[in-house]
Amino acid sequence: MSVRTNRYLRNILKHEAVDTSSTSPLIRVQKKVKPIIRRWAGNFLANIYPSGSFAKGTANKSGTDIDIFVSLSSNTQENLRHIYNSLYSELKRNGYLPRKQNVSLGIKVNGYKVDIIPAKRQSAYGNNHSLYRRKANTWTKTNIQTHITKVSNSSRIDEIRLIKLWRDHFNIDFPSFYIELVAIKVLRGSPHNNLGNNVLKVFRYLTNKFLSDRYVDPANTNNIISDDLTASDKRTVAREAQHALLAETWSDIIK
Predict the structure, then answer these.
(1) Residues with Cβ < 8 Å from 60, sequence gap 6 or more?
(2) Does position 206 have pLDDT exceeding 90, yes or no?
(3) How does 64-102 read in b/e, with b if 16+ C-beta sit within 10 Å?
(4) For FRET with 234, which of 32, 155, 163, 208 sits at 20 to 30 Å CA-CA?
(5) Angstrom distance (rounded) from CA 136 to CA 94
């Protein structure tokens, strides 16, 4: 893979870099919604912090959003479904137009997409949480800190960001955490100085083995991440990856 290819991909990553400093617009977004969450949670609020791509370092400017994880005390009496729905009502009362997603509530703040994930700690200690899964009307265990640590320490941040840019450009249904786990697995042992070859390696994997491989949440072996996509969804990912491999130039794949 040529030096020119790597320069092209590095320039895209630089252009798509997200400000994660204390003065970041996304941090200001979090500060704006914090008072609403504090009033809603009252004495049962344990913590509020960024999660998702922003916290892991895998966010891109063109797809900029922020996930806000709301940790409630294990002493919270209400069940998870009630917690989820009552936060929805609170956001609505404060002038937002929340969208009910699977485990989060989506709102727009200052033009940014914000996903708020309410969860209840499973005990007074540790970071294991229970959260509501609306689509299945059930709950699941998760540990956001485990997710953040696994991805941010993977040394595959650049490749993950490029795969996300490809996904967003072609509007492919492929959850971010699923992408992160795939890239970490596929690129284990690969050199770090050749972005182009590494991204192509992921595309080759997506065209075949991806369809049958199973991915498990590192924070909960009962949560099968690969079940987040249907067989049809996975075939779409594989087909788009095949198109990427046949593309004549990188600008046809990632912009």
Answers:
(1) 16, 18, 53, 161, 164, 165, 168
(2) yes
(3) bbbbbbbbbbbebeeebeebbbebbebbeeeebebeeee
(4) 155
(5) 28
Q: Is the pLDDT of residue 1 over 70?
A: no
The answer for residues whose C-beta is within 8 angstroms of residue 20's C-beta and 6 or more apart is 26, 54, 57
Give mean pLDDT, residues 36-50: 96
CA proximity to 71, closest of 90, 50, 91: 50
Distance CA 124, CA 75 (A): 8
Q: Is the pTM of this model over 0.85?
A: yes
pLDDT for position 85: 97
Scan for tokens 């009033």, then name that residue: 39
Which residues, in sequence order, are CB contacts of 97 under 8 Å at separation 6+?
Answer: 107, 108
Contact between residue 199 and residue 163 where contact means Cβ atoms under 8 Å apart? yes
Name the H helices within 16-120. 25-41, 52-56, 80-93
| Residue 144 in this model has a pLDDT that exceeds 60 | yes
Q: Would you call 85 helix, strand, or coil by DSSP?
A: helix
Distance between CA atoms of residues 129 and 143, nearest Å: 6
Cβ atoms within 10 Å, residue 252: 12
- 103-115 residue pLDDT tens: 999 999 988 889 9
Share of the chain above pLDDT 90, in %: 84
